[in-house]
Amino acid sequence: MVPEATFTSYSGLPVVKASPWKADIPAYMFFGGMAAGSSLLAAGGDLTGRPALRRAGRFTALIGLSATMATLVHDLGRPGRFLNMLRTAKLTSPMSVGTWILSTYGPIAGVAAAAELVDMLPERRVPALFRLVSAVGRPAGFVAALTAPPVAAYTAVLLSDTATPSWHEAYRELPFVFVGSAAAAAGGVGMLAVPPDQAGPARRMAVGGAVLELVAEQRMESSMGITAEPLHQGKAGRWMRASKALTITGALGSLLGGRSRPVAAVSGAALVAGSVCTRFGIFEAGQQSARDPKYTVVPQRERLDRGEPTRYRG
Amino acid sequence: MIGKTSLFGPVNPARDAGYDDPPARKGFFTDTSICIGCKACEVACKEWNEVPDNGFDMLGMSYDNTGSLNANSWRHVAFVEQPARPTAPPVDLGMPTLLHDGVADDGQQTTVAGEDRPDFRWLMSSDVCKHCTHAACLDVCPTGSLFRTEFGTVVVQDDICNGCGYCVPACPYGVIERRERPEAAKNVGIAQKCTLCYDRLGAGMTPACAQACPTQSIQFGDVDELRERAKQRVEALQAGGVTDARLYGADPEDGVGGAGAFFLLLDEPEVYGLPPDPVVTTRDLPHMYQRAVVAAGALLLGAVLSFLERRS
Amino acid sequence: MAEAHPVGFQWVMEAKLRGAKIIHVDPRFTRTSALAHTFVPLRAGTDIAFLGGIINYVLQNELDFREYVVAYTNAASIVSDEYTDPDELDGLFSGFDPETRTYSPESWQYAQQEHEGDTRQDMHEQRETSSAQQFGSHGASVSSALRDDTLQDPNCVYQILKRHFSRYTPEMVEQVCGVSPEAFREVCEAWTQNSGRERTTALCYSVGWTQHSVGAQYIRTAAILQLLLGNIGRTGGGIMALRGHASIQGSTDIPTLFDLLPGYLPMPSASKHPDFQTYVDSIRKPGAKGFWDNSKAYTVNLLKAYWGEKATAENDFCFDYMPKLTGDHGTYRTVLDMIDGKVKGYFLFGQNPAVGSAHGRAQRLGMANLDWLVVRDLVEIESASFWRNSPEIATGEIVPEECRTEVFLFPAASHVEKEGTFTQTQRMLQWREKALDPKGDCRSELWFLYHLGRLLRERLAGSARERDRPLLDLVWDYVPPEHQHEPWGEPSAEKVLMEINGYEIATGRPLSSFTEMKEDGSTLGGCWIYTGVFKDGVNQAARRKPASEQSWVAPEWGWAWPANRRTLYNRASADPDGKPWSERKAYVWWDEAAGEWTGHDVPDFEKTKPPSYRAPDGARGVAALAGDDAFIMNGDGKGALYVPQGLIDGPLPTHYEPVESPFRNALYAQQGNPTRKDYPRPDNPINPSFPDEAEQVAVFPYVFTTSRLTEHHTSGAMSRYLEYLSELQPEMFVEVSPALAQERGLEHMGWCHVITSRSAVEGRVLVTERLIPLRVEGRVVHQVWLPYHWGAGGMVTGDSANDLFGITLDPNVLIQESKVGTCDVRPGRRPTGPALREYIAGYLQRAGLDTGRRTPILTTGTAGSHTDGREADEGAQP
């Protein structure tokens, strides 16, 4: 047993403020990741002749995309506020960078999904504009796939670029946890939506994503020091335990019974749920770490006590 | 525009932000050794900036019923009662022998004036936005609502802020906050914090809090000169036997590149609710992006591999 | 001081920055203590014992500033050998009459001085009318006494003082005040080492110090100490009263007190002042030295200011128009008379007695029994809303539907909405411009009183009744032509100030000094001490020259009375020969070459009277003052260590226990101030003290005191109605030490209530080590502290701490003892409704007060019957 760290605070009050964000933000991260992974699957499906995978991927991306916009606008309060973000581009703001990534990826992925819709219509009735959409569907799908990975990765930077102890201290591994989680979610959706004969890449992506997420998360915890504690406590702890269980279950199911449609569906659903839990778990852990002065004060105090205050060195 | 020390290290923030010939950087030196806890700063700030009340809740934290810096309190006076450490631990936990109600005999474990009571202290300190050289709130703001003024201070433009709330967890001091109440107040949903009275500075006036401070605990002026003054003050105090005196936020090489509002404290920063070694989160941002790019690449590669394997 | 006077405290902080040592003596650790070098906690109500101990330390070690003391104080004066000290009389001075509880002061006089002062009958009337207050500035009407400049004569003041204070030893201070000998010694050493030729020490007190049954004597003790150490009349010295409001000094200079006229002229008495000459002679005391000799001129000018050309030498300047005192018309007597139905109407100007005055219940019951009540305030304060929201509604003592008082609430203009002056604690007048017009029907006091007078005069116009003449003959013309176009006719405050300053009637030339006031009626002036504020027709109070552009005394910032003098009695800043005591402390000195007094301040002395001047025999008044009689307002020209005349409770301060005290007086058999003014009525019970039975005393075992928080202003009328102040201290609370919390089972932030024989008030518990139990007379005593800002109105409401106090007054000035009392503290909220009165009745019964029995005031000769407090029965507690 490591003895409880002793530290001083002002009446036990937090030093930093927890973000004012609610469930919108982890949901946003989940949907963004799922959309990004799905665009990749869709493009692959397109290239490798798996139309079901392509179609499912493009639609999932559209659903994810719509959900991200919905959660974002809900968080901001009204749609107009999103536009304020487009008045500038700031590299120092991961949210600004993310806005532009999303603003690039979103319409293209949207077009790809639209093309899929158009292609489902009876051919003779399609107006000229729709035919144009259909024509750019394929390149749009490829461009969407190329712009998708940043959508999955930037949300890690978004969280880490804060003074929230359990987010900031996680910045080295969190992008890997998040892309892993995105891949697992997208793969999981693919396994749910696509017949097993076309879902091979989705299974492999799901398993690979799950493994990456689990490994990266483990490494992350060991590099976070005391700020890893909240990942095991309270609400965050419950989310993270659920995440781990669902992800492992889903990955094993995919590996062992992925070719069976029911097993694939259950495993896929477990991976999607696992990804949701990961996002909420990481989110909550950060919020909890901000509300307890211990996670702000102790690491900083330890630096000072080691005689290593943060100083600029040329 | 991006210089070597734009994210970390000593820099003139106004010049770094693109002002060609900015006026001298302005800031506060808050000398808590002469703070009398009158809270005139809190009230003057609210009066001038039309900041709403923060509710009528007694907190039971000495005389602090404000609690913290927040959207509705841009100055916050902390009160720290530091009880004397008893020279011997109380041993007798049984009922004291009361010979007479309220009057105990000499055997009672009651601390009485002049006995076992070394140096009880009541520390008071008026906290405020630090107006960091490297301000995380400003860095992470996606709309440009938070901006660097010509005076080197950091100010929210209420009409541009979209209430995304990103600045709130970004601040290493827990200063900025989105206003949630009262419902009828202006700027609900908007990030709020000290502006160092930008409107007053523009008119050549002193910020309201410093103007109201009766004891010169809050000193306003050019940061360079204030730093010099602070250095002399802390030296004088230490020479006078106040060995606990120290400066906080006055070093341009510290984790935020030096604060525009810095402090003379009489105890460790965390005693007052301040982070002991704050760092601007964007110091690590290049590294974060680097990791994210690698992760994104890994996702792309992973996707490719997912398909390649089948074909091979 | 930091708590209630944060703006003034900046100078203390500045002094600290320059190396001054700050000592804070207070029952509890406050914001002031936090910034002081040394904090000395003491038991509330024991300050005379504490300061007396320091005086004893000074005298025993001969640390007084001897040259100063011999030259400028009455230390060398010989007192009548009939005088007997409390030292020998168990705490009473000679001349005491147990029947009336007053002194016959004949034996207190200087030796071989023909007694022409007060008699016992006078003392009784003075206590009724608090007219002893006039001596605050008049001094004794004595002329020169026999002297022994060696200070060896056993009957000289110095030796009397030494004997009187000899029992105030450090051990006694520890026993009575609970102050450790180490802390006490530190204070003694710091004070004495920082006094003398080269250094001076200032004493600042907040006016809670006066709110004791021995309040005037608290200040006297401070004065003795500061005189002994040479700290009066010198830069950096003095005794600073930190007044409770912006212009309370102004409201005693031009008073809102029943017993004083402007400039500390006494209110005439119906029995003692049948005519003008008698009145004037009673002030100037023919034959005495000093500036009161001119009091006829001061009075004539005042009467001329009131009645203008109607006031002539032939009709004694309308002296007969003046109302006359017939007894106690003080605020507390008036309130009790209200309860008894003897008062019909009541005006309240910016005062909130329902919350701010002692015995709140009596205040509210009194106000509920009037025909009418006029309240002028910024908001509807509790004194205007008592009929519908006072605690007595819940108890059924006031029924809104039946309350007979008709309340007229007039909205008042705030200080930024009207022009005028504030007079602060240094007697400095500062002019204030109006920043904006008041809103709606809000109006200034000046407007209200002027138009009230105008309307009354209009109603009485044409009356032939004699009694209406004073009103009809008043000069009442304060609205200048340029104001008359204003919709509401605001009087000109400058015109009022000009009348206060005074002018030559024929020419209108403003007087530049009160020495220009004439006795023949050719000048007028409303307040002689303010003459000069309009010198040369310039509003001197409006001057605001920055410190950087004038000397460090800053004579051109505002204007200080008298004659813009910043330090009173500053002749004492130079030695008897007129040379500064030290270069460092040079302030005012005699310039031999120029033949005049000069220096940094306006000399408080006749400008060309040399230090060597000695008055010829038979001289009187100002001419009788010698060149080294620095205390020019006193009848003997000397600072009074010993006061042979004018104080009702004795010529020297003596420690008496507070009226309510869990302890018996360790210094004397006499427990409390024997001459205090009390109101023995069933609605004014006083908690038991010695010589009551110990178990009765133990019903209220703790000491409590009240004061202000920085965040609120007195009764809260100006703070509880503002959100920015209310949020800073939103709830009534009670501060207790951890030990008391444990003893009574009080939880931090839980509820508790404090009980006295008057009422019970509740608040949240604030457990803090800032309250420290003290060891007094070998026992631990807990002190409880309450702020007194809350009431039923405003944004934040709560019980009023002043409801806990009863009414007992200092005999000299009729100020209430409202800074110390005894109480009980219990966890939880107090009972409400009729149960509250039953709850109090239970306490009265246990304390033996239910029968109407009162604690005897005289306790000399009863020492043998004292029972040890430790035998009290705990089971008697509820």
Written overview of the protein:
The complex is a heterotrimer of chains A (314), B (312) and C (878). Chain A has eleven helices and no strands. Chain A has 314 residues and is mainly α. In chain A, α1 (24-47) crosses α5 (128-160) and α1 runs antiparallel to α10. The model of chain A has no long low-confidence stretch (mean pLDDT 94). In chain B, the strands form five sheets. In chain B, strands 10-1-12-11 form a four-stranded mixed β-sheet. In chain B, strands 2-5 form a two-stranded antiparallel sheet. A two-stranded antiparallel sheet of chain B has the order 3-4. Chain B has 312 residues and is α+β, with helices and mostly antiparallel strands. Chain C has 878 residues and is α/β, with parallel strands linked by helices. Among the domains of chain C are: 45-192 and 208-243, Dimethylsulfoxide Reductase, domain 2; 677-871, Barwin-like endoglucanases (Beta Barrel). At the A-B interface, α1, α3, α4, α5 and α7 of A face α3, α4, β8 and α8 of B.
Write the topology of this structure.
The complex is a heterotrimer of chains A (314), B (312) and C (878).
Chain A: H1 24-47, H2 51-76, H3 80-84, H4 94-120, H5 128-160, H6 165-168, H7 174-193, H8 200-224, H9 234-257, H10 261-291, H11 293-305
Helix pairs in contact in A: 1-2, 1-5, 1-7, 1-10, 2-4, 2-7, 4-5, 5-7, 7-8, 7-10, 8-9, 9-10
Chain B: H1 13-16, E1 26-31, H2 40-49, E2 75-82, E3 98-100, E4 103-104, E5 121-128, H3 136-140, E6 146-148, E7 154-156, H4 167-170, E8 177-178, E9 191-192, H5 198-202, H6 208-212, E10 218-222, H7 223-239, E11 246-248, E12 261-265, H8 285-311
Parallel strand pairs in B: 1-12
Antiparallel strand pairs in B: 1-10, 2-5, 3-4, 6-7, 8-9, 11-12
Chain C: H1 6-17, E1 23-26, H2 31-35, E2 38-41, H3 47-60, H4 66-72, E3 96-97, E4 102-103, H5 120-129, H6 135-138, H7 157-165, H8 170-177, H9 181-193, E5 203-206, H10 215-228, E6 239-242, H11 248-253, E7 260-261, E8 265-266, H12 276-284, H13 295-307, H14 331-339, E9 345-349, H15 353-356, H16 360-367, E10 372-377, H17 382-389, H18 391-395, E11 406-411, E12 420-423, E13 428-432, H19 445-460, H20 469-472, H21 493-501, E14 503-504, E15 523-524, E16 559-560, E17 588-591, E18 596-599, E19 677-678, H22 694-697, E20 702-707, H23 723-726, E21 733-736, H24 738-744, E22 751-755, E23 760-767, E24 774-776, E25 779-781, E26 783-787, E27 808-809, E28 821-827, H25 834-846
Parallel strand pairs in C: 1-2, 5-6, 9-10, 10-11, 20-26, 21-23
Antiparallel strand pairs in C: 3-4, 7-8, 12-13, 13-16, 14-15, 17-18, 19-27, 20-28, 22-23, 22-28, 24-25
Helix pairs in contact in C: 3-8, 3-9, 3-10, 14-16
